[in-house]
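Shipment paperwork, digital attachment
Item: protein structure file
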Amino acid sequence: MSRSASGVAPRDMHRHLGDGGMALIGQLGADFTTAGTGHAGGTWRPTNLACNPRGGVQGGVFTVILDAAMSLAVHSVLPPGEAAVSIDLRTSQPLPAEHDARLQVSGDVIRLGATVVFAAATVTRTDGQTVAFGSGTFIRRARNRQGEPRCEPNGAA
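Attachment content:
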């Protein structure tokens, strides 16, 4: 059995494929098809919800998608009972993307520390040109801490 960078068996990320467990990601048009051993990847066809009135993808939406890709990659290397949340995100969009563009999304763990995890993600066109890229710092913590407010998965009440 392969081991993750944390020294434990890799987490089964199958249930997080598709929208990453967050309805918003699917509504924006992203579809994660791989996640495991420090990497996540998928496709993105931006929906109208992702776009500004001119038809281009809004800058903050790139950040949402890049954060999701990095988060999937990070969680794929954490042991059961642990989670991580982004505490710093930096993104850039060197090229525009329009509604229904065919894009690729990937996220990777750069360094897995005992407390902090560093990750990076990119959005590319089918011709390989980078549309957006970002880096994130995530803090590791126990999953479902007592008394901590949480969102219900996929908008469930």
